[in-house]
Amino acid sequence: MGLFHVWYAHTDVMLQDICLLQYGEQECDSGYGYGPCIRNFYFIHYVYRGKGHLIIEGKRFDIEAGQYFLICPGQMAYYEADKEDPWEYRWFEISGALCKRLMKQSGFSGNCPVICDKEKRVGNAVLALIRSEEAPFSALLGKTWEILHAMTENGGGFSAEVRGEDYVRKCETYIRMNLHKKLRVAELAEYAGIDRSYLSRLFKEHKGLSPQQYILKLKMEAVAQYLKKEETTVKETALCVGYEDPLEFSKQFRKQFRVSPTEWRKKAFYEQSIQDYMQ
After folding, report:
1. Residue 56 near residue 76, CB atoms below 8 Å
2. Within 10 Å of residue 223's Cβ, how many Cβ atoms?
3. Taking the domains of the chain in order of start, what are their residue ranges?
């Protein structure tokens, strides 16, 4: 057995989006195989020298230097170094809610678990992580994101499906940051850099509402929280979400909650007093 190193990423912080679990490197002997085994998380191997093959769910893929392959959670996989030119690879394992989306952006699919890295950007990024060895977790996570960025660019970035969702997320952030303004759909479309009708179609698809309906929904949800504060008047609350006309504000609030802002506030205070009494 040649060179073999593995490091585990330790942190007390529970990360949900992306978390690095382990990373390592290995110079394989002739015909060295691993598996069959089932991984619990996302495992990416990058081949730097030599060649070998991967078998996933009974399908064989021949792999050589300059390529990297993915093993997803729950997949039965076996991989083996070539007998004449055994491979040297480096790997990393990640978990988190964003993994599936990022792997799709990177160009992986059930029929394509292997990708070629023509410009070596992914390979260089993986090597930078390995050379970090036992660095602080924050530094390791930064290196991991550099790899993922290189992978998504190498894989063509966002697919049409993911791009649509991303536009909606971008607009939602913009709405939340500007609830105090009188927002227009045309303004959102301009911010996202897409056609207004296309934006409306994306909101209907991903949120089930038109952009204007979604703006109103977020504004009224914020209002409901403001009204729980006794020191805030209804007029001040209206201004906080971009309504200069109190009558128009009350009309929109009643449309959303079927009661006036004043009635909603009284009900909220009553329910809070009951909770306080029960405690």
Report:
1. yes
2. 24
3. 4-154, 161-278
Residue carrying structure tokens 């070629």:
116
E-strand stretches of 82-231: 88-95, 114-116
DSSP 192: H
> Coil, helix or strand for 112?
strand
CATH T-level fold of 4-154: Jelly Rolls (2.60.120)
From CA 44, how far away is CA 79, in angstroms rounded?
12
C-alpha to C-alpha distance for 234 and 205, rounded to whole angstroms: 34
Nearest to 23 by CA among 139, 164, 177: 139
* Average pLDDT of adjacent 10-residue blocks, the chain of 279 residues: 73 73 95 93 97 93 96 95 97 92 86 90 95 89 93 69 76 89 89 87 92 91 79 81 86 84 72 46
CATH class of 161-278: mainly alpha
| pTM of the predicted model as reported, rounded to 2 decimal places | 0.58
Q: In whole angstroms, what is the distance from residue 168 CA to residue 214 CA?
A: 11
